[in-house]
Protein backbone atom coordinates (compact mmCIF):
# COMPACT_ATOMS: atom_id res chain seq x y z
CA UNK A 1 0.00 0.00 0.00
CA UNK A 2 1.49 3.39 -0.97
CA UNK A 3 2.21 5.78 1.90
CA UNK A 4 -0.24 8.34 0.53
CA UNK A 5 -3.00 5.68 0.58
CA UNK A 6 -2.31 5.12 4.28
CA UNK A 7 -2.43 8.86 4.86
CA UNK A 8 -5.73 9.12 2.97
CA UNK A 9 -7.27 6.28 5.00
CA UNK A 10 -6.10 7.95 8.21
CA UNK A 11 -7.64 11.28 7.12
CA UNK A 12 -10.93 9.65 6.15
CA UNK A 13 -11.12 7.85 9.48
CA UNK A 14 -10.34 11.09 11.33
CA UNK A 15 -13.04 12.95 9.38
CA UNK A 16 -15.61 10.27 10.18
CA UNK A 17 -14.83 10.39 13.88
CA UNK A 18 -14.87 14.20 13.86
CA UNK A 19 -18.31 14.21 12.24
CA UNK A 20 -19.64 11.80 14.84
CA UNK A 21 -18.21 13.89 17.69
CA UNK A 22 -19.52 17.13 16.20
CA UNK A 23 -22.98 15.61 15.83
CA UNK A 24 -22.86 14.37 19.44
CA UNK A 25 -21.61 17.64 20.92
CA UNK A 26 -25.05 19.23 21.54
CA UNK A 27 -26.14 16.10 23.45
CA UNK A 28 -22.90 16.14 25.44
CA UNK A 29 -23.73 19.71 26.45
CA UNK A 30 -27.14 18.52 27.67
CA UNK A 31 -25.29 15.93 29.80
CA UNK A 32 -23.16 18.79 31.17
CA UNK A 33 -19.80 17.81 29.69
CA UNK A 34 -17.52 18.85 26.87
CA UNK A 35 -16.20 16.36 24.34
CA UNK A 36 -12.67 16.31 25.78
CA UNK A 37 -14.05 15.95 29.30
CA UNK A 38 -15.92 12.88 28.07
CA UNK A 39 -12.70 11.26 26.85
CA UNK A 40 -11.07 11.87 30.24
CA UNK A 41 -14.15 10.61 32.11
CA UNK A 42 -14.31 7.52 29.91
CA UNK A 43 -10.73 6.48 30.71
CA UNK A 44 -10.62 7.06 34.46
CA UNK A 45 -11.63 3.53 35.45
CA UNK A 46 -8.86 2.11 33.25
CA UNK A 47 -6.25 4.72 34.18
CA UNK A 48 -7.04 6.08 37.66
CA UNK A 49 -3.91 8.22 38.09
CA UNK A 50 -3.65 11.67 36.48
CA UNK A 51 -0.19 11.18 34.93
CA UNK A 52 -1.19 7.76 33.60
CA UNK A 53 -4.38 9.26 32.19
CA UNK A 54 -2.47 12.05 30.43
CA UNK A 55 -0.08 9.53 28.86
CA UNK A 56 -2.88 7.23 27.71
CA UNK A 57 -4.87 10.08 26.16
CA UNK A 58 -1.73 11.73 24.79
CA UNK A 59 -2.73 15.04 26.35
CA UNK A 60 -0.56 17.51 28.25
CA UNK A 61 -0.71 16.98 32.00
CA UNK A 62 -1.90 20.57 32.46
CA UNK A 63 -4.89 19.94 30.16
CA UNK A 64 -5.82 16.75 31.98
CA UNK A 65 -5.57 18.62 35.29
CA UNK A 66 -7.99 21.26 33.97
CA UNK A 67 -10.47 18.64 32.70
CA UNK A 68 -10.24 16.74 35.97
CA UNK A 69 -10.86 19.90 37.97
CA UNK A 70 -14.03 20.49 35.91
CA UNK A 71 -15.19 16.88 36.30
CA UNK A 72 -14.64 17.01 40.07
CA UNK A 73 -16.57 20.31 40.31
CA UNK A 74 -19.44 18.73 38.37
CA UNK A 75 -19.53 15.79 40.79
CA UNK A 76 -18.56 13.25 38.11
CA UNK A 77 -15.14 12.32 39.50
CA UNK A 78 -13.65 12.05 42.97
CA UNK A 79 -10.02 12.42 43.93
CA UNK A 80 -8.70 10.45 46.85
CA UNK A 81 -5.31 9.67 48.33
CA UNK A 82 -4.05 6.30 47.12
CA UNK A 83 -3.90 4.06 50.23
CA UNK A 84 -0.92 2.19 48.70
CA UNK A 85 1.07 5.38 48.03
CA UNK A 86 0.09 8.42 50.07
CA UNK A 87 1.93 10.72 47.65
CA UNK A 88 -0.49 9.93 44.80
CA UNK A 89 -4.07 10.82 44.08
CA UNK A 90 -6.33 8.14 42.70
CA UNK A 91 -9.36 9.05 40.58
CA UNK A 92 -12.73 7.34 40.66
CA UNK A 93 -15.93 8.04 38.80
CA UNK A 94 -18.97 8.80 40.91
CA UNK A 95 -22.38 7.25 40.34
CA UNK A 96 -23.36 10.47 38.57
CA UNK A 97 -20.16 10.25 36.48
CA UNK A 98 -20.94 6.68 35.45
CA UNK A 99 -24.47 7.72 34.46
CA UNK A 100 -23.20 10.67 32.40
CA UNK A 101 -20.57 8.48 30.75
CA UNK A 102 -23.23 5.89 29.85
CA UNK A 103 -25.51 8.58 28.40
CA UNK A 104 -22.63 10.07 26.40
CA UNK A 105 -21.66 6.63 25.07
CA UNK A 106 -25.29 6.06 24.01
CA UNK A 107 -25.19 9.39 22.20
CA UNK A 108 -21.99 8.45 20.37
CA UNK A 109 -23.38 5.03 19.51
CA UNK A 110 -26.57 6.57 18.11
CA UNK A 111 -24.65 9.09 15.99
CA UNK A 112 -22.23 6.44 14.72
CA UNK A 113 -25.10 4.03 14.00
CA UNK A 114 -26.85 6.74 11.99
CA UNK A 115 -23.73 7.11 9.84
CA UNK A 116 -23.30 3.36 9.54
CA UNK A 117 -26.93 3.15 8.42
CA UNK A 118 -25.76 4.65 5.13
CA UNK A 119 -24.01 1.39 4.24
CA UNK A 120 -25.52 -2.07 3.95
CA UNK A 121 -25.27 -4.66 6.70
CA UNK A 122 -22.67 -6.72 4.85
CA UNK A 123 -20.35 -3.73 4.58
CA UNK A 124 -20.88 -2.95 8.28
CA UNK A 125 -19.87 -6.50 9.11
CA UNK A 126 -16.79 -6.19 6.92
CA UNK A 127 -15.87 -2.87 8.56
CA UNK A 128 -16.25 -4.47 12.01
CA UNK A 129 -13.99 -7.35 10.94
CA UNK A 130 -11.37 -4.95 9.54
CA UNK A 131 -11.36 -2.71 12.62
CA UNK A 132 -11.01 -5.69 14.94
CA UNK A 133 -8.13 -7.01 12.83
CA UNK A 134 -6.39 -3.63 12.95
CA UNK A 135 -6.72 -3.45 16.73
CA UNK A 136 -5.18 -6.88 17.40
UniProtKB/TrEMBL annotation:
Top-level taxon of the source organism: Bacteria
Residues in HTH marR-type domain copies: 2-136
Protein name per the record: MarR family transcriptional regulator
One Gene Ontology molecular-function label: DNA-binding transcription factor activity
InterPro entries linked: HTH_MarR-typ, MarR/SlyA-like, WH-like_DNA-bd_sf, WH_DNA-bd_sf
Any one Pfam family match given in the protein's UniProt record, by short name: MarR_2
GO biological process, one term: response to stress
Organism: Amnibacterium flavum
PANTHER family reported for this sequence: HTH-TYPE TRANSCRIPTIONAL REPRESSOR YETL (PTHR33164:SF43), TRANSCRIPTIONAL REGULATOR, MARR FAMILY (PTHR33164)
Amino acid sequence: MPADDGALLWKLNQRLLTRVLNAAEPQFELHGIETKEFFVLDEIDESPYPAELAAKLMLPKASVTMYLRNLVEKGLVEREIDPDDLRRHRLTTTAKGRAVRAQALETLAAEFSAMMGRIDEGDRGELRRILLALLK
